[in-house]
Amino acid sequence: MKATEENTYYIAEISSDVAKExxxxxFKPEEVKDLLSNEKYYILVGKLGEEVAxxxxxxxSWAKIHILDMAVKKSKRRxxxxxxxxxxxxxxxxxxxxxxxxxxxxxxxxxxxxxxxSSGFRSRLFSTLVNEGFYVFP
Length: 138
Prior knowledge:
By secondary structure, this protein is an alpha+beta fold. It is built from four helices and six strands, in the order ααβββαβαββ. The chain has one domain (5-104): Aminopeptidase (3-Layer(aba) Sandwich), CATH 3.40.630. Strands 1-2-3-4 form a four-stranded mixed beta sheet. The chain has a two-stranded antiparallel ribbon with strand order 5-6. The relative contact order is 0.13.
């Protein structure tokens, strides 16, 4: 479901918890609130019952949608929440007439690589982020 201001704290809480694994960045509630109010971003939450268990943050760029960040609570993983979030982003892109959904995944994030591969994503280019913050292409 599309995220609302009511979800702000939950998204920030999940990002804070999962950021400790080094796979996503931590968002403060104020940042999430700003993103929710910006029409350039599309944010979804995944729920188990009434509990927000995960989120996906994406942005519109070049007639495509770019998945920037995605996280699921550690205790709620392996229940299909991530797959459901990805499917909703793909459906949204189709409804909007966007040509592509793309994302960047760290090579060491095997669960995310498996999720995106099983959702139909293909690898196009591999690169390594070096200490200075620039990408190096093999």
